[in-house]
Specification:
Layout (H helix, E strand, L loop, with lengths): L2 H8 L19 H15 L6 H8 L3 H5 L5 H11 L13 H18 L3 H5 L7 H16 L7 H20 L5 H4 L6 H4 L3 H9 L4 H20 L2
């Protein structure tokens, strides 16, 4: 991602009005274009988001879109940041462990609701004001409940990295944990992987179960490092 994406994300963030679209007014706004693109990605996948498809959905010409967004790469960055335009749904909590647990669940819920956003999040892109607002919000909560000064961001990033990895199997093709290991249903194949097969017989963990188990162990480690 380059300078163009950064400039688009941060236009107007300091209070200045965003630059108007080029050419004659068309009734479109960047916000409307981004919202429609998110709706397409949620329903059909990111690969279905094209300027032509978007123009058809909006009832406009393709060139009208380019007056507001230079291309799909820039559009995708705007789409991702728009997912965090509202405050993060963090729980009221009295301990930093509970704040971080809530943060991890917020991250998980975001990608379960918008699976197309995970490769965007882990790709090369600038941080936008929506995402910055979420991070600033959780840092403020951590400071309010006594997280040691200077360590909040490291703790947030640690939980964030866990959540990004742990949610991937849940949204990979939309498969459940059982479907992910369906190859074990073939006895000839299962015999090659006896330890996996034994776990399958015992019953695989649910998606939420594996996420919560891992999240709590991450928090255990942070608690041991920083102290309760």
């Amino acid at each position: 991602m380059g300078q163009g994406e950064y400039e688009l994300l941060w236009e107007g963030a300091a209070g200045a009005a965003p630059r108007p679209g080029r050419g004659r007014p068309s009734g479109l706004t960047r916000e409307r274009i981004v919202a429609e693109a998110v709706a397409i990605a949620d329903a059909e996948g990111l690969q279905k988001v094209s300027m032509k498809h978007l123009a058809d959905r909006l009832g406009s010409g393709v060139m009208s879109l380019y007056r507001h967004v230079p291309g799909k790469d820039e559009l995708v960055v705007l789409m991702y940041d728009s997912l965090m335009s509202a405050p993060a749904p963090l729980p009221d909590a009295d301990t930093w462990r509970d704040v971080l647990a809530g943060w991890g669940r917020c991250v998980r819920d975001l990608f379960l609701a918008h699976p197309w956003a995970l490769p965007v999040a882990t790709g090369d892109r600038p941080m936008g004001p929506g995402e910055a607002g979420w991070v600033d919000q959780v840092l403020g909560r951590l400071a309010a409940v006594g997280m040691p000064e200077g360590t909040g961001l490291l703790a947030v990033l640690t939980v964030d990295c866990f959540a990004l990895g742990a949610v991937r199997p849940e949204i990979g093709g939309g498969e459940s944990t059982g479907a992910f290991f369906r190859f074990l249903q073939d006895p000839a194949v299962a015999s090659r992987f006896p330890h996996l097969a034994a776990l399958a017989v015992a019953g695989p963990a649910t998606n939420l179960g594996h996420f919560e188990f891992g999240l709590q162990r991450v928090l255990d480690g942070l608690e041991q490092h920083y102290g309760a």
